[in-house]
Amino acid sequence: xxxxxxxxxxxxxxxxxxxxxxxxxxxxxxxxxxxxxxxxxxxxxxxxxxxxxxxxxxxxxxxxxxxxxxxxxxxxxxxxxxxxxxxxxxxxxxxxxxxxxxxxxxxxxxxxxxxxxxxxxxxxxxxxxxxxxxxxxxxxxxxxxxxxxxxxxxxx
Length: 156
Fold this sequence. Notes:
Immunoglobulin-like; 4-stranded antiparallel β-sheet; 156 residues
């Protein structure tokens, strides 16, 4: 290999050291930020939604990530949905689940139980990156996940 080519290769390798392409670069910073598990004004299949937040400093792609819930088949994101640093994205069971907001993705295979259930966000390798569980839901519940405040809502 010629000296110039070798030097360029070393520069490129040094610049990329420790980085992983795609969703895994910032994926560890994706969290379940909000849920609507028990809408009152519409049936559950038209009103449930999940908000995913990126609490990191690097954009993360949800492609290949999955949602799992107790007694459900689960759902794997097949398309590219990039969540910017500090941003959120909305996933819903129906395109009209949230007033004045359009979900980035309509999912299937997950039905959030109103009384007792859990939801897990798993990376493309199947590792659970965040999860939340509930039973006998309050009006809303707040929890801390690192520096993120997680709020779950049940409408009255």
